[in-house]
Amino acid sequence: MNSFFERRYIIAGIFIAIIIILLARLFYIQIVDPRYAIYANNNVRRQKIVYPERGPILDRNGKVLVQNVPFYDITVIPRQVKPFDTVEFCKLLKIDRAEFNKRWTKAMKYSPNLSSIFEKQLSAQNYATVQERLSEFPGFDSSPRYLRTYPDSVAAQFLGYIGEVTDRDIKRSKAYYRPGDYIGVTGVERSYEPVLRGQRGVQNLMVDSRGKPKGHYANGLFDTSAVAGQRLTSSLDINIQKLGEKLMENKLGSIVAIEPSTGEILCYVSSPTYDPNLMVGRERGNNTAKIYANVYDPFFIRPIQAKYPPGSSFKPLSALIALQEGVIDPSTTYYCPGYYYAGNQRIPCNKGESHGLVNLSSAVAKSCNGFFCMVFQRLLDHNGARQTEASFINWRANVNKFGLGSKLGLDMPGEGRGNLPTPLHYDNIYKQGRWRSSTIISLAIGQGELEATPLQMANLECTIANHGYFYKPHLIKAIGTQNVIKKEYTEKNYVGIDSQYFEPVIKGMQQVVDDGTAVRSKIPGIVMCGKTGTAQNPHGEDHSVFVAFAPRDHPKIAIAVVVENSGEGAHWAAPIASFIVEKYLKGSISNRESGISVDYFEKANRLPDTALYLHHNGFKKKTIKADSRKNAIQDSINKQLKGLKGASNRNKKDSLYRFLAAAKKRDDK
Amino acid sequence: MINNQRSFFFNVDWITVFIYLALCTIGWFNIHAAVFDERHPSIIDFGTNYGKQFLFIIISMLVGAIILLLESRFITALSPGFYGITLLLLMAVLVVGRNVGGNQAWIPIGGGFRLQPSEFSKFTTCLLLARYLSGVNVKVTELRSFLIAGAIIGVPMFLIMLQPDMGSTLVFLSFIFVLYREGLSPYFLIIGALFIALFVSAILYSPLAVIAVIAGLCLLIILMFRKNKRVVITMLTGLAICIVFVLSVKLIYNNVLKPHQKVRIDIVLGIKSDLKGKGYNVNQSKIAIGSGKLWGKGYLNGTQTKYAFVPEQSTDFIFCTVGEEWGFAGSVVVIGLYLFLVLRIIMVAERQRSPFSRIYGYGVASVIFFHVMINIGMTIGLVPVIGIPLPFISYGGSSLLSFTLLLFVLIKLDSNRMGIV
């Protein structure tokens, strides 16, 4: 104890003061400031997306059409990347420096803190070498992805393909998708995207300071597991699909076969086609470009996007409407002199040779143009010539009930509606009230403005086979392992024709194959009812069309075949259809009396001249996009305005009002 | 004799011993949490740091027990000898030492263990200082005594600075409290604090602004005491020194300090925030402690420490584990234990009859307190990063052993306080 005894209080005081400062600071960072807890969480928590397997697609008998193979994406989180040997890294991924920089900038732009894809779709073999060394490059990681593979390389236009999402897809999905995700681009992959994609899972991992995973955050409490996409069972029969694609090799056109009792599409061929496997993997871009460069346009989905004048294959429908409207009865006869005069217009029949006396069935069997022109004129004129327009509208409505001129609502994107002309269309050509049944007589034999897609043609056959109704055609039979069937596919769509009227027409169609135009395509042991057609083609040789269903009693298959630029239906389309039908019904193809063989048709090349087709193609694409009705109205308004330029002001106003009112009236109908 | 023995045990300050044991145990468990390794989960696995720390604790306790059994006179008498040995070791370490992390501070002693002489020099310097200041004719207020005392502190300081171990060097500054207690003018403390304040403000603000402010304050004081010539002269001289100091701060800061030291100061003052590089330690350490909240994440559940986000987490940054896993509550307990220990030591020192024991006691309190202040201050970003351990808690044999020596010698001296030293 000495004189400075009291200084111990000062020293103790200083100590206490400093301790209080430390405690105050601790209080601040531990209790007041909430940021540190968040930072600590961000340090250790990493979200890892678990991609579900995309649902496989099977054919109607359970055979796999599409399944998945694992590929590996190399991902990067830019913030976690530590300085590394870029040269080595580039060598490992086999990319150059410029490419590396480009991808790096892209990843940074997306987010420095989130994982984005750096290198896409390494195959399992290539990934093995990368995987060994990936740990040397912190911040880079890999994630397995499942890509599509097509064991039989069939039905490309049906299956479609998946591709990386675009910015628009991301926006439209309300940011469900992330850059680098895959989405169905066309075909069933697109229309059933929500079912096929499944549900993504999230793993909340904890990592140490080097980014090494150290188990699940909160013991996996916030993790969600990925739910695999649902399995789709398609209605296609892979056997006839394969046969169809083979038969259509080196030809343009399509085959659509439908099971009448369900509306299930059995065969969906669009030719030329492509190997769907080309749309998968790293070479996809190059392959796509090659396919685009093909003038015959394999991406054009002919069964639903191409439209052809049905030609004579339209005649059964004409007959049915006439029977229903009561303008003819099954015993109505007509003498065919080999031509038909509608007004002063001469329509040749049977190359100018007389069919003699025909009735309804034999007119169908012999494809007598004269008979159907007569029927059509009766239909349009039975209320007098002044009522032509009203009768036409009635006729049009009847045809439309069969699905012509509107979309059938197939479960595929990009369906076309064909073309069923409106009265307005004729008003524009001939002026209102200035056209008669004779003016539009070509509709009677399925020519002129009338156009149908192969799907619509096949559906028409279903309706005939069913005696008056059809099921909505569809390509996906059942969803998931529970085989859920959409309700809309179990409802009958009646077309407003009494079932008793079908027999005479079907009788005629049976004769077509038994001893009519398609006799060469007769199938031993099977009664097939069909109708040949020749679709006029202003750009080259006519298209060969054949529609049919079989067997006659309890039909199991309805089919439409179009072979472009191949002339008469009996020559190309009918034999091809008969092979498909026989294969489907019997499982094999027997020798034909007529001597036609699958082999011959497979090898035949019916591709038109490329130069000719280029022109055709451009024309076709333009018409597909046109939304006929609205555009026609718009066009005619423009035309009217143009025509009125010279007229006086008052007249101009009046006639414009009159025109618009008329257009509206028609529209309402 | 039996009576004597009993009184000896009663005379040992068991409260201090208890706090010591508590801190060692807390340290051991927190090291276990900090470097927890799933392959070696046992806390007494000698292949791991926590296993080794257990060994160090056992050894330290044995050493502590031996010290209690020694003669007090032996310790006092040999203090110059101890001091000399540490000086020799400090010189030897500069030649044969192992360089770890930029500091040449360790002498390998085989078996994977290393000796850190600078840790022991704190203890021996404390002993010799106490012995010198307790001399009959020694008064700190006298220049000669002051200079000799300064030399006793300065020589090991200088040798450690050569390693260069800034942290341990600065620890010797804590002896200013001892000198103050023994009569050093309080102006030393005030002026010391003033210069630290000036240094910090000169870095943070423009020197001219700082000079303007202090000149203004001085003028105010001069105006108030303008009758008193002495005050005026003192203030003017002081002002002149301050101006020179402020102007030279930038020079010292830019030329004398090493770049890493500069950055550490910048980070504490918030001039720089280099969270990826130099500021990484402190930032991660703050995140660890801050994320502990009130009750902490629980034993072995601290993600920051367990997953190695905080570097040096078992040695200098051990307090992160305390803060993260035991929260504010745990931090208060640990800091409270230290405060209690230091205040207890001051109390023990003041009850000594012999000046040697008292001075030594103050030395112990100052050294321990300084370590606690700097270490915890640095983990929460209050002081620049200075690598010194947290007494009894940080991993390390040399550190634990030297603090044990420091403390147990005091306990031994205290147990003999009735006798004559």
Plain-language structure description:
The complex is a heterodimer of chains A (669) and B (421). Chain A is α+β, with helices and mostly antiparallel strands. Among the domains of chain A are: 7-33; 239-623, 3-Layer(aba) Sandwich (Beta-lactamase), CATH 3.40.710.10; 627-668. Helix content of chain A is 39%, strand content 18%. Chain A contains 24 helices and 22 strands. In chain A, the strands form 7 sheets. In chain A, strands 2, 3, 4, 5, 10 and 18 form a 6-stranded mixed β-sheet that branches. Chain A has a 5-stranded antiparallel β-sheet with strand order 12-11-22-21-20, sandwiched between helices. In chain A, strands 1-8-9 form a 3-stranded antiparallel β-sheet. In chain A, helix 14 runs parallel beside helix 19 (502-514). The longest helix of chain A has 26 residues, at 7-32. Chain A is elongated and about 145 Å long. Residues 617-630 and 643-656 of chain A have low confidence and may be disordered. With 421 residues, chain B is mainly alpha-helical. The mean pLDDT of chain B is 85. Chain B folds into 2 domains: 2-184 and 283-415, no CATH class; 185-256, no CATH class. Chain B has 17 helices and 3 strands. Chain B starts with a helix and ends in a 6-residue tail after the last helix. A 3-stranded antiparallel β-sheet of chain B has the order 1-2-3, with helices on one face. In chain B, helix 15 (318-350) packs antiparallel against helix 16.
**Major sheet size, sense and barrel closure of chain B:** 3 strands, antiparallel
Kindly report the oligomeric state of this protein.
heterodimer
Radius of gyration of chain A: 34 Å
CATH architecture of the domain at 239-623 in chain A: 3-Layer(aba) Sandwich
The general outline of chain A is elongated
**Count of β-strands of chain B:** 3
Look at the structure and give the mean pLDDT of chain B: 85
Low-pLDDT runs of 5+ residues of chain A are: 617-630, 643-656
Mean pLDDT of chain A: 84
- SS element count, helices of chain A: 24
| Class from secondary-structure proportions of chain A | alpha+beta
Largest sheet of chain A: 6 strands, mixed
CATH superfamily of the domain at 239-623 in chain A: DD-peptidase/beta-lactamase superfamily
Share in β-strands of chain B: under 5%
Number of strands of chain A: 22
The gyration radius over C-alpha positions of chain B equals 23 Å
Uncertain segments of chain B are: none
Helix content of chain A: 25-40%
